[in-house]
DNA sequence: ACCGATATAATGTCTATACATTAAATATCG
DNA sequence: CGATATTTAATGTATAGACATTATATCGGT
């Protein structure tokens, strides 16, 4: 036995639950029974059961006992990494070309821009992402200078503002909206497709501790970019 | 103080890390220092630090100490709930109409169908989802009868096979692929749009303990359905 | 300066115990 | 019978200590 005992107990129940041998609502042994079965102290089984609880697999009620939790809504881990990194993993070369850059105030009537600006100026950066010099996505980005004053001195002629922001101002809250859109005339020209052709659109707002950081809208060439999300048994937060 | 001490310590560091007061790589106090600072035992601070570790916020190395983890790639929790539930939350009425149903073997040459069938038959179910009787998405689904023998007796004339599967055969692994496509002629007719119009396409494979369960391709009317994913400070796996 | 053996500092695991908390079960009283 | 008080079984939290593990640091010898 190389793995610690509490981890063994935890993994054992996880396997049984995921295999369906234990159905939602089933009661599992009390801590007393488990410490006898494994010949260990209560703290050890408690650690195992607590881990299962925080992983959402079991529900524990005082006096009643521990039960297999009924599956809450399946949620899944979707990685939305930096485009440059993601392309690099595929062996493609990422490049970014800036097409527009200006500092301005929020446009009157656009509440979202006003909220993002938060009383200060916005930096507007438009550009295009390429993979191996072929157009991949057009990007429209607004950055709150209030949250990121250093941004106005950034050099984005070749490096992507997304990469810069990730490295300098990691966000703590985000909202992504994924939809299908027809390419506008301008987007189509940049991507080399016909207007109205279907494109994947990702809009993202990010915040840091409640303060808005950036809004970005990326329109991807269909067929060139899919979003893939995988989900599997949670990797145990091991030692 | 209502909350337990280990939870207070954990929340304290979480707040400081998320607020940026502690930068990645920063070292935080040793367990010894923390137990003096809070006047508690080592197990208590250990519990707090272990929780931070399993949440991915800190990294712990023996002899060296505990450090703020450098943000691994931001991953986010994307809820892909049952359509019926999601529409219900919006106050819309969900309905499903079956347009095709057959049991067949995998089509020769389609490796993915063969892998899904896993030596047995496939149940093919095509249908259309509506919100308040307006078309929302067309769905093409293949179900492995080997994994879900009971499915062949299911009545899907009005209830969605996705809902049925979620209730009867929760998956343990899944892969989602989100892309933008142009509606085919048949899809366009069902959705009431012109062929080629941009649609959001979600393809999903699910498994249960390594055995394939189902493949589904859903093509959504653009503008009617966005996928929204939010991410925020992880809700503490509370008591 | 280099390499190897040893010491050391930190986390990792576990025990045995104690008391608190809570919700279910049970008893009690009107 | 029904409402209320009490018991009790289970988890929740915490302590103080012990030993294991391991990466780092230090010391010696060549």
Key terms:
homodimer; 239 residues; alpha+beta; Arc Repressor Mutant, subunit A; Chorismate lyase; 2 domains; six-stranded antiparallel β-sheet; three-stranded antiparallel β-sheet; elongated; DNA-binding
Can you walk through the features of this model?
The structure is a homodimer of 239-residue chains. Chain A has 239 residues and is an alpha+beta fold. Chain A folds into 2 domains: 5-68, Winged helix-like DNA-binding domain superfamily/Winged helix DNA-binding domain (Arc Repressor Mutant, subunit A); 83-221, 3-Layer(aba) Sandwich (Chorismate lyase). Chain A has helices spanning 5-18, 31-38, 42-54, 83-89, 111-117, 161-168, 185-191, and strands at 27-28, 58-61, 65-68, 75-79, 94-104, 122-131, 134-144, 173-182, 198-208, 211-221, 227-231. A 6-stranded antiparallel beta sheet of chain A has the order 5-6-7-10-9-8. In chain A, helix 1 crosses helix 3 (42-54) and helix 2 packs across helix 3 (42-54). The radius of gyration of chain A is 24 Å and the shape is elongated. The two termini of chain A are 15 Å apart. Residues 72-79 and 232-239 of chain A have low confidence and may be disordered. At the A-B interface, helix 3, strand 4, strand 8, strand 9 and strand 11 of A face helix 3, strand 4, strand 8, strand 9 and strand 11 of B. Strand 4 of chain A pairs antiparallel with strand 4 of chain B, so a sheet runs across the interface. The structure holds a DNA duplex (30 and 30 nucleotides).
